[in-house]
Write a structure and sequence with these properties.
alpha/beta; Rossmann fold; seven-stranded parallel β-sheet; 17 helices; elongated
Length: 430
Amino acid sequence: MNLTEIGTVAERPLKVVITGTFLRYNKGGAAMGMATAQLFASHFPNCEITFLSPHSQKDRKVYSDHPVIACSRTQYRGLWVLIKASIWWLLRTVIRYDYRSLRADSELATYYQADLVVDLSGDTLTEDLGTLVLFSHLTSLYIAMSFGRPVVLFGQTIGPFKTWGWLVKLFLRRCAAIIARDDPTVEYLRHIGIPQELVHRSVDSAFFLAPLSTEDASEAAKSAGYDPETEVTVGITVSQLMEMRYKRKNSEAINRSFAQVMARAIDAIVARYDCRVILFPHVIGPREFLDDRIMARRVRDLVEGKASVLVVNEDLDPRLIKAMIGQCDAFIGCRMHSNIAALTMCVPTLAISYSVKYRGIMGMLGQQHRVIEIQNLDDEILVTKFDEIWQHRDSIRQELNAALNAVEQDGVDNMQVVRQVLMAHGRASS
């Protein structure tokens, strides 16, 4: 059975499989998944969305409206799944035989039955995070392509590559569409020779996440120990990942730790603006070194005015975190998706960056000059840059509001790309 055969039955719902997500403990990844599902549901009412996740049991909590199937791309079992998909493809290609038992398990059956595979690998199609991470995400693409299913890379930062660029290009050229979330990715794909008709420039899918209500956010804030309706608040995300990048890239790291830099800046900001600083964790696991709350507590413990700093410790829904960040008067973000939450709520935002993705995504809303590279970070620079966004916060909100109107059209354009892919692969528009 080929894609045309499974995709032209008008009565059958459109089957979309979302891959590349990792775990709901990463609120940015979860925001991408939830927002993508919202987009597809709004543009394709006759649509069934299934998530493939390495942590399916945990992720069912955040994707509760959709089936979540276990995938093995981060496990040793993934090698066996690849072998089965390869044997199936070989038999199908050479002797035109559909060996059904090879695709009978839930993971491979999910790929096989799909009309479209949407990959949300974010910024992991790169060698910067190591070969194992890169190959784990290529696994999903390989299986989908073995079954002949169209693959759309949705809202991603891609590259750079040194050793494995030749292999990744083979996959990229076989994608039905590549939706890049920043200009540097578009330029990089052009540079390595990816056909430009495959590449579409848009934004990260988390831009389209609908937040929970203001009432929900206020209630959660009060439960956490602050009142955004009566207090001036500055939201901040910190991470152990940023600390590692700081140690590696910043020459001042031998004299002062990342936590000390952040604590000194917080003390200065609190003294200057009589505000409450809220430290939001945007990744809380699964391993301890990934938990933002550990770094947040370390920073708070170094602050002199501890009464003015609060760490949010709860495991919160990404939509609720976005709504809570949206109540802040200003925001400083080490996690890119926390910055997206702030920007899309029109909160003046200062990004601390270790990757091209920060400036690229900030630039989508005309905020590329409000970025501090980690190698340049110190508390004086941070406070000076914060002073700038504070003094111009009203005009920044207006800038963001105007820029977000164009972003809404990006969501429509993304779905038009998807619609064209479906039609090109024999699935009538749903």
